[in-house]
From TrEMBL:
NCBIfam families: NDH_I_M, PRK05846.1-3. This is NADH-ubiquinone oxidoreductase chain 4. One of its GO terms (cellular component) is mitochondrial membrane. The lineage of its organism: Eukaryota, Sar, Stramenopiles, Ochrophyta, Bacillariophyta. Core subunit of the mitochondrial membrane respiratory chain NADH dehydrogenase (Complex I) that is believed to belong to the minimal assembly required for catalysis. Complex I functions in the transfer of electrons from NADH to the respiratory chain. The immediate electron acceptor for the enzyme is believed to be ubiquinone. Core subunit of the mitochondrial membrane respiratory chain NADH dehydrogenase (Complex I) which catalyzes electron transfer from NADH through the respiratory chain, using ubiquinone as an electron acceptor. Essential for the catalytic activity and assembly of complex I. Coiled coil: none annotated. Its EC number is 7.1.1.2.
Amino acid sequence: MVKNLLIYTLLFPIFGIVLLLFTPAKKLKLMKLIALTSASLSFTTSLLVWGFFQNSVGSFQFVVKLFWFPNFNINFILGVDGISLFFLLLTTLLIPLCLLTSWNSVSANVKEFLIAFLVLDFFLIGTFCVLDLLLFYIFFESVLIPMFLIIGIWGSRERKILASYYFFLYTLLGSVVMLLSILYIFSQVGTTDYETLLTFGFSDIEQKIMWLTFFIAFASKVPMLPVHLWLPEAHVEAPTAGSVILAGVLLKLGTYGFIRFSLPLFPKASFFFTPLVYTIAAVGIIYTSFTAIRQTDFKRIIAYTSIAHMNLVIIGIFSFNNIGLEGAILQSLSHGFVASALFLVIGVVYDRYRTRIVQYYGGLATVMPLYIAVFLFFTIANIAFPGTSSFVGEFLILVGSFKVNTTITFLGATGVIISGAYSLWLFNRIAFGNLKIQYTQTFLDLSFRESVLFLPLILGTFIIGIYPNIFLSSIHMSVNYLVELLYF
């Protein structure tokens, strides 16, 4: 029973999809309840995975092996360790929240919308749990299909088709070259089983070439400069639920790929290309931080801040020590909470007033106090205020990188300082000043459903900030094992 928890987590979205296919399209409430229940059950089983997870074990747990192409040594293997555990939990938490936030806002093609999110749930869970490199690639790329449809069909403005193609082509073309390396690995090793590949030693030139192909694929997902242009477009045009899952989970596919594959499979190449990674990440942090300051669209501001925060995570990953790597994983989890919440904050006012241009808002602290209180909490979390999850993650990243390169630590910290400028500027414009009654006459504070949406994100942000050891204790042994692979 316990051993098969990952199978249950993966299958609940499939059961939901099957039930939706046989549900009459007119029964909207029933369809929404089916989708929400299946996604919630998947989250519940992932919580059980965390509950039964053994913190003292650094290897994979809950391993399930199903033969797929046994003659070619390609098998469907699922398993989690401390690195993938919280990416799994983050995915299964945010999908139900996405369904809840779309409860009233999506009225066209509701069945297809719900199925798209459950398919996305299935592919994301598979991406974080599968232990075969070829199957990882299949899940990794399959995520693009439902997300492409979510942006292109249920997007909010006229540029949604262009934005969906931006997203699809940037991320797909970046990953095609990785497939060539995977095929080469299969020809050399005879299998794509992850644990077998860890024992195989590639030559220096092989590592460098394959590392570059993996880097292109993962960098386009983070995203890093110069392949970041798709993200602001995708965020601006996507529905609120699409932006939440895009910022909360899809950006983590790149950082997870670096940690899971680039570092342990190609350790020498990872050390060799570290100056290149540091340079791109530092430029990305400073450039996108300053770019965020001059934006006028609510979503575009948060989109650029996401790029800056994820590039700081990259610096932590390439510090090659326990502190930096654990900080990178914790900051990825923190960003999943904070960025998702900020996009929900945007969605609340957009659903009411149908605009995201900052100049049309002002003085909301007097008429929407609960909304502004939630906005303030996640604003201070976004600037890594002590007591919030971002502070712990960014502090560990900067300490870890300081042990390796003080210059990159300084540049990374500069981005943290600038984040205070654009975050407080945005909050000040929205919360204070004169009410723009010439644009809006009626103001409604958070409803009960909207308050429930924010509650788990507030708790997650607060708990990591106050007592991070709850999460770090599960991460530590797996990160320690990864660092041993890098140096030995």
